[in-house]
C-alpha cells in the first residue's frame, strides 16, 4: 500500500513576486481560499496568486517544522527551491 501524505507545505507567489509559505492538510481547498480572499490576511489583495511549490509531510508537526525552516530562508534560497522543484530537507 502506497504511503500518503496528509499534510503539505507550500509556497505561493503574489503579483509582486513575493513568496508566501503555508501549511495545510488540503492543498486545493487552501489555494482556493487564498485566491478568494478568505485565506491568510497576508495574501489579501495581492493576487493573482499562483502555487509554485509544494511538498507532502508525514505529520502536522513535520509540516510546521518545515514551514518554520523555509520561512527562515533568504528570498534567494526560496527562489532556488521553487526553481529546482526539489524536496526541502529538514536539517
Automatic annotation (TrEMBL):
Limits of the GIY-YIG domain: 5-80
InterPro entries per record: GIY-YIG_endonuc, GIY-YIG_endonuc_sf, UPF0213_domain
Family matches, as PANTHER family: UPF0213 PROTEIN YHBQ
Membership in a protein family: Belongs to the UPF0213 family.
Identification of the protein by name: GIY-YIG nuclease family protein
Organism (species): Vibrio gelatinilyticus
